[in-house]
Fold each of these.
Amino acid sequence: MTEILGYGGAILIGVTLGIIGGGGSILTVPILVYIFGLLPVPATAYSLFVVGLTALVGSAAYMKKELVDYKTAAVFAVPAFIAVFSTRRFIIPAIPDLIFTFGEFEFTKNLAVMLLFAILMLASSISMIKKSKFKESDSEAKFNYPMIFIEGVVVGVLTGLVGAGGGFLIIPALVLLAKLPMKMAVGTSLLIIAAKSLLGFIGDIGEIPIDWSFLLIFSTFTIAGIIAGSYLSKFISNAKLKPAFGWFVLVMGIYIIGKELSQSL
């Protein structure tokens, strides 16, 4: 029964990505930790692979429609890739398992990862609930290279720490800093997420034991979900589903904070 629930969640991740173009990957780590029982650090590694592979499949449809700006993807993805790879290879292993204690309270690496992840969930949920205030531009793309570099590094570090794609940060950056139309920004974002997540996952190979059989099965369900979601997007309103999913993610984020803190006290 637990496996059925977990793989159903994997399909939900893909469906959400297929319909709203982002946000679904934020569910990957909670499903791996709370349903399949993985520890947070390995779960973030698995999430990088699942999110990367699923985003790659999702970006293929945008490539066929010529809705991917490869130059912008490269400018954004290079610093993001370097940041996520460095985070997985050097920063994560350098964090001690027990960071500090306060009386009987122990602040561990696993707790830090889950709390940071929950905070990212709250930020992601707010971005989905609120109506977008940034506007598309009809002008040609004029790269704000310093800001794109900084944004790529920030997103890369966050992706490396918590294993989420960060589409809710990437899409506004592409619209505001690279002047891409929204549909082009979504397609380009998926390609960026795919590249940095899969390449970042390389930083974990040899460092973390990987159950390839489980990982590939889980990814298969997620890919099936994004294919279904892409089809359903023709009939389901993105504008209505996105805020509803945002509220769900908000509740999940609050739940994770409460659960993790209560277990540590």
Note: Residues 40-211+240-264 form one domain.
Amino acid sequence: MSVSFSLGSLVATPAALEALQSARQSPAEFLSRHASGDWGDVDATDRKLNNAAVKNGERILSAYKTKDGERIWIITEADRGSTCILLPEEY
């Protein structure tokens, strides 16, 4: 599937950045997947919601695991003003 949406300003929580640093992974690795429509570890319902959100201008949520097994989320806001990398417990 080919998707296209603006990520807006990129932000991340300190805990998410620490998890990425600990796993020796770059935020860009996960942002690239998110921006290309690879929603990661979301269920079929969330996958459908994300695909619709790209067209309808709603919030987009991707979920991934680092090489260390730490879960991270990436959320692009409905207005496409910002995209945040965070840990699920920070939501």
Note: The first strand starts at residue 9 and ends at 12.
Amino acid sequence: MSRPLLGCIADDFTGATDLANNLVRAGMRAVQTIGVPGQALDIAADAVVVALKSRTLPPQEAVAQSLGALRWLQAQGVRQVYFKYCSTFDSTERGNIGPVADALLDALHPDGDGFTIACPALPENGRTVFRGHLFAGDALLSESGMQHHPLTPMTDPNLVRVLQRQTRRKVGLVPYDVVARGPDAIRARFAALRAEGVGIAIVDAISNEDLLRLGPALAGLPLVTAGSGVAIGLPQNWRDDGSLRPSGKADRLPQPVGLQAVLSGSCSAATNAQVRHFRAAGRPCFALDPLALASGAQGLDEALAWAQRQLARQDELGPLLIHATAEPDAVRAVQAELGVERAGALVEQAMAALAHGLIARGVRQLVVAGGETSGAVVQALGIAQMAIGPQIDPGVPWTAVRSPLCPQDTLHLALKSGNFGTTDFFDKAFARLLEEAAR
């Protein structure tokens, strides 16, 4: 069996599927694992994505997990390593993007001469980098709603400044005018920055064409750090050297079965809009109240009993939604009462238990909104590996998985980053799966 070419380390589960989705669309056979596997890869793949739940861990824990993933990927013989983070560069003043990038560079370059890039651009989803500043649509990141993120508020859009606060390496910039001139100009800028002692270079990109120009300049670089967008430019490097061959229809999944549900723990602006749209369409919705859960005034049995009634009428009512999604003021009130960590953990634990209960009640098509929520759900369902299927919206594919909770059935799972997806995403997701099944 051939060895994978690209080994990826993703700092959350939705980000991992986002990355794997782009690699599959670019013609690579991709496998996603949940956590670091305990054994060698036993499936032929051109790329393997190790999904961690490390984005909001203390930096030393995120580093330890990432180095564990690196060691496993090296044992599989990968030629290039890709550290994937969110296109909104989610991190705190302490990390974790800088500390993990430092640790991976140290491990891959024990001589201390390491160099890599940082580029969260994902133009398909409106994430662009210009003059080192990150934009979400037409707004600077700090004015996009991300400044209100409950765990990783982003108040500075200047990525050079943000990353410099997290890394001991000097951070530089590959500006847009260089990127626009193509791979040779980008390589020359890399060489100039390295001569100046720069260890990590922020790279501007405002379109997919920029990412495709960047791709050839990254050939042979041991480590790439980026959002999922940079992945679209890498497969051509291996096609050019003959390592990558066409894989046919890489995103075909088994036929869907069973009932449909959505679990949403994200409080992003995009997910809030999706929840409002779903509710306005008359779909069945149940809102979790973290304060009521904490006090015992609301129980998960109540939510599951409600879900049972809706599932019995799904032909009439359509998919159901259970959510802890709330507007920023409500989130801040909960955090003030419970504390940030306890509030987040409470929602994650609730969503994990609800996923378990929904599967027991016949749900086999499940959409999960929010990176931390998705990680909790995947772990609760005992999922070890995911096959990547058709894209719903940029960055969000359907996947097919096996769970010990329903060992005889395939479970179709869509893990959506909180900031991704159009307003009608939840309905669109199930329609997309039905469309694929009819092909």
Note: The two ends are 31 Å apart (CA to CA).
Amino acid sequence: MIPKEVLENVRRIEIKTKSIINDLMSGDYQSVFKGQGMEFSEVRTYIEGDDIRTIDWNVTARTGEPYIKKYVEERELTVMLIVDASASGDFGTVKQMKTEMAVELCALLAFSAIRNNDQVGLIMFTSEVEKFIPPKKGKNHVLRVIRELLYFKPEKRGTNINAAINYFSKVQRKKAVAFFVSDFLTNENIESAFRVASKKHDMIAVAIKDPREAELPDVGLIEMRDPETGQALLIDSGSKAFRERFLSESNKRAEALENLFRSIGMDLITMSTETGYVEPLVKFFKKREKSLV
């Protein structure tokens, strides 16, 4: 039996994300993520003006009258949520931890998907893939995905983005829309893996940041600890030169990430624990919608 606290938290997430879908994203998801092609529906008699390329010659020969094939959009999509569960996500200095934002964002995407009768799957990774939920439809399935996101306890602390992408490519043979949610705090060379995956799948990178990862306050000597390796470093935040260098390095990393995904042809959504995920996501949908016109 699922504990009452778990059910209450899942319900809270459901109410909040559904409100956002109804108020801000109505129709955006479906208009941006089209079906994967056309599938056969039925045959009907030929009417003057129909495209002769759609004539069903077998039925025409059998009946002696021209018939054409009708097709409809194959609407069903597979949406994969690939979520970084490494220890660096347990950080937040403003409104939310990065992991909390990732959960709400993924819940929003999952409910948008089932609203359109699409399948949703989940991959959670650290230095290795630790959880895989195959794509399925339905509200009960999505609630299970959200429970896993809320209460998953990773065994490892590190990050291996390449391992996650390669795993996804192996288990997901059919084309999918994949949201890759991470803070991208890694020294890996991730270009090749993303480039290969994006040739088959609609890959969308979602970078979740916290303002303190870019700008340090002037509070004197502080100890900074890498949550993934445990390595600690004593720094003097009172040094203006150090704070400027810290900001410069952060900006360089952000710019490099943008350039990387631009060169691959992938979309990148950047969001902050300070400003939330709604505005960047809505802006992404609007931008996508314009590009399809």
Note: The beta strands are 38-45, 67-73, 78-84, 119-125, 129-136, 177-182, 202-209, 221-225, 232-236, 267-272.
